[in-house]
Amino acid sequence: MEYKVEAHRIMSISLGKIYNSRVQRGGIKLHKNLLVSLVLRSARQVYLRDYYGGICLSAQQAREWCEGEYMDSEQDKLVPGSTESLPESDGQSEVAVDKQEPSNVVESHAALDVESEASGEQDHAENGVLDSGCSELKTPEESPEASPTCEVSNVENLHEPIVPHTCTNRKRSADDSELTDSLPKKTKVMSSTLISKNDEKKAETEEMDTSNVSSLITIFGSSFSGLLSSEDGAQPDSEAEDSDSGQICCDQMLKNLNPWSTAIVAF
Amino acid sequence: MGEDTESSKGNHSFLRDYVTEADVISTVDSTTQENLLATGDKGGRVVVFQRETVSSLLPPTSSHLLSSLLPLPPLLSQPKGELDQVGETGESGEYNVYSTFQSHEPDFDYLKSLEIEEKINKIRWLPQQNAAHFLLSTNDKTIKLWKVSERDKQPEGYNLKDEEGRVKDISTVTSLQVPVLRPTDLMVEVRPRRVFSNGHTYHVNSISVNSDGETYLSADDLRINMWHLGITDRSFNIVDIKPANMEELTEVITAAEFHPHHCHLFVYSSSKGSLRLCDMRASALCDRHTKLFEEPEDPGSRSFFSEIVSSVSDVKFSHNGRYLLTRDYLTAKVWDLHMEKGPVETYQVHDYLRTKLCSLYENDCIFDKFECVWNSSDSVIMTGAYNSFFRMFDRETGRGVTLEAWRETSKPRAVLRTRRIYTGGKRRRGDVGVDSLDFTKKILHMAWHPEENIIAIASTNNLYIFQDRVSPDTQGPDLGSDTI
To answer: How far is the first Cα of chain A from the last one, in angstroms, to the nearest whole number?
Structure first.
């Protein structure tokens, strides 16, 4: 659970930095903001993973998610033993945990996961890049406690994957030693970003936006174009609430969304 | 430990009266100059120092400078014959202010409603071709070529102007004279010769003069342009990594440099930790690299901050052109141009910070961009750290030393004492604990004389100059003694 707290803290700090950079002298520093956004995505990934883990462990949802995962062709690449482990998704987090490194380490920045989580339709195998980070999601310990908040996905839909290609590379290199376990696998599936998404899913995503997350989504949704637009002088109003919106949105999502609603594909 | 804390507290109050934001040195260069050193600061000023080669001593004329002579520790010294040029008093070689000028002013981009900082990001000297010296200085957007020349004669005896320059009344002129040149006091004149503007959309982070002496490159976050020193209204774009959709941006250019001998080769580093060597003969737009130098990431050391820590902050060719030196947040790496799969040497600069990345992220220190330099023979590399420490690594032995650039602990002509960071094990007196490091005292900018063992270290608003001196009085390595 402390990972969630740490990740949340880092997210707040990062958002604060992005916000402050818009008012500092000399204009926006592209390099620094790029790095901050990478950290933000990593933190978000970890943060959402915690909730996600909770969802997976919840019996009903877990089974249903698992079924969808079978169809994920991407899994085979990274999750050799996935099919067997599926049935165990309900309870056996330990499997996944063993080999995984101690957390707090969020590798793959590839922000994608964020979106991927939103998009993680269990029924649709994503062709999209699976963020390696997803596979590393090891939250077995925390999963029982986490309420099945699907804020996961919604928060994520924010932004289209910033670097699908990059993600892929990272994933392959980093995940070789990684565990493929039911839990991580699921997360990965869920989080797989959609490069090819259903129109249906897209529609759902749009409907799912709540006002709570809208500001945060706007920020991420605009991502660098948002940064650039402020370089150009334009400043979305929602940016003023960067720091707060993250927290509000996450909390709200936790309470309001049910697991199925999270199966929303971002874009 | 106690004494360290006290001394640093004392120094803070002393410095507070003198340090202003605008005096913070932001770049140092002496690459092609034997006797000149230039520093740029955040206020847009450039200060040029000259090394005295005669034995006369002149006191420093600028109050915010510190220039001292200190021998380097013998373990790294390389005695050379030419160091014995000392005059009778043995005091030659001291650097003094040669000239100061305002290079850039704060500017405003009306189209984007953005302020353009006057901070000098980089200065590069040009190879000397005649009596005058030329340097390029750049802020975020504009590069300027300055001519630094001496004048020791002045024409006198104009017919139409009097001595003060006022125009004479023609009716008072009764005879004609030929103006003559008369010797005057030495004056250093600095004039802007070229202004290279509107070349960059993003912030310029590097400039590098080509070995052909005619062109130079300037790099910003996403593009690299090549300019001709004589042409200011156009430049060639040779690298463009801006993606069609900015939301797909994954890396930016962090530094770039031309090869010291081959005028068609240059290298640029990225925020992902990779280096790309480009050959301009291959194509006009060098988006496709000739060589890509990248070290695979260690999956065991992933963290939230892995990307930030692997971003390369500086890249330098060795003098012989065979190696590259890069600096990322925690390490300095030497790469062989013939081997792309990884560095040939990796030096840990301050690995004890690896566990503190989160707090360094909060206070923005993790974004600090440290520079690195080679010595003249490419056998020693040097880079900066925190707490006014800087590190030198001897490539042959792999050993590194930590030295300090801090006026309270450095007396002129004293031997520089090596420092240690306490990270566990037996603690010696004088060791500094990791938690007592002052992260506001960072050594980001430095320069090494192109031929001799003279280094310039910029620490906040002070410039420290250290020289290696061979003399019978040199003591042995002074590692164990306590100071002050």
So the answer is: 30
